[in-house]
Amino acid sequence: MTDLAPHELRILVAVGSEHGFSAAASALGMTQSAVSHSVRTSERKLGAVLFERGRTGATPTAAGEVALAHARRVLRLLEVMRAEVRGAAGDATDEDAVVGPLRIAAFRSAALRLLPPALERLAARHPGVVPEVRIVREVGRGTAGEVLDGRADLGIATIGTTSPVPPELVGGVLVEEGYALVHPAGHGAPRSLPLVDWAENCTSYTRQWWAAQEWLPAATVEAEDDGAVLSMVSSGFGMAVMPELSLIGAPPSVEITDLGPERPTRSVGYVTTPELAKSRAVRALIRELRAGAS
After folding, report:
1. Do the first three CATH levels of 93-175+268-293 and 176-264 match, i.e. the same topology?
2. Residues of the chain below pLDDT 70
3. pLDDT value for 139
4. Each residue of 172-183: b (16+ CB within 10 Å) or e?
5. Which DSSP string do the residues of 123-161 spell out, in sequence order?
6. Which of 30, 156, 216, 269 is 20 to 30 A from residue 142's alpha carbon, by CA?
7. Is the domain 176-264 a CATH 3.40.190.10 member?
8. What's the rounded Cα separation, in Å, for the pair 29 and 20?
9. How many Cα neighbours within 13 Å face the side chain of 91?
10. Do residues 285 and 154 make contact, with C-beta atoms less than 8 angstroms apart?
11. Which CATH class name applies to 1-90?
């Protein structure tokens, strides 16, 4: 079988991103027939149909989704190779040669609390690195899925026994955060309040803990994110059980009550691909994340 060339990978990714052959052709400065021919050639080389063609555009098949993930990751490795080779070819030292974009996927509280100080230190040490941060809901495949699909170089993810690092990735724990009861300050009976929750809040272990707490009712309201939950609690709407990262900088209008030694916890860490884990920019960011967590 003949391998796909980089230009063929770029065309596949463009069709996937633009959801159609015409839009991909426009984005790439090519004709639609050239894009269609390239995709057919790639499908023949791979032995699978990659896109379902229709009047509304092109939708990746299951095989196409796999191909697109690999294509994005291969193209990203080529970009990293180019940046690192150029850096090493100059007069810079190994550390000074850390340059280029660094794509990061993080869920909201991690993006607000863990990333800023790490990125500040990274910029001071390696001004040639350009971070690109995307906020991703940590539900379903979450930030790890963004890395697997080639859309991010590193993801800040919830990891642990109940949500392990996917076998195709590598990673490590940065912080172990406990949960606490959050309620309006000064309320005489906070456990009598309605429960406010959000979809990203808990791992399955935490859900097991919740199920064993007879005083915890079912959530009355499910908010969009932890910021909305905190705002509702602050306004006296209800109580919540929230992880520590979400409570940094909580307003004085809320009170945080420890749940004791049996409180649930959540592991927050990083995930990346084995190949990108060796790249200078990703290694540098991991060092800064670990330094901030220690």
Report:
1. yes
2. 1, 90-97, 161-162, 202-205
3. 84
4. bebbebebbbbb
5. HHH-TTEEEEEEE--SSTTHHHHHHHTTS-SEEEEE-SS
6. 216
7. yes
8. 14
9. 0
10. yes
11. mainly alpha
| pLDDT for residue 169 | 95
The amino acid at 240: A
In whole angstroms, give the CA distance from residue 9 to residue 74. 8
Which residue type sits at 203?
T
Concatenate the DSSP letters of all residues of 277-290 into one string. Answer: GGSHHHHHHHHHHH
pLDDT at residue 96, rounded to an integer:
56
Q: Assign domain 93-175+268-293 to its CATH superfamily.
A: Periplasmic binding protein-like II (3.40.190.10)
The residues that bridge with 60 in the sheet, in sequence order, are: 51
Say if residues 237 and 143 touch (Cβ distance below 8 Å): no
What is the reported pLDDT for 255? Answer: 95
Token match 């945080």: residue? 256
By three-state DSSP, how is residue 255 classified?
strand
pLDDT at 260: 87
- CA geometry: angle 258, 107, 63, nearest 5 deg: 135
Residue-wise pLDDT tens digits, 162-219: 678 889 999 999 999 899 999 999 888 888 889 898 888 766 567 778 778 888 877 7
Helix (H, G, I), strand (E, B) or coil at 165: coil
Determine the Cα–Cα distance for residues 219 and 198; give it in Å rounded to an integer. 9
pTM of the model: 0.85
Nearest partner of 192 among 160, 220, 223, judged by Cα:
220
Element (H, E) at 270: strand 265-272
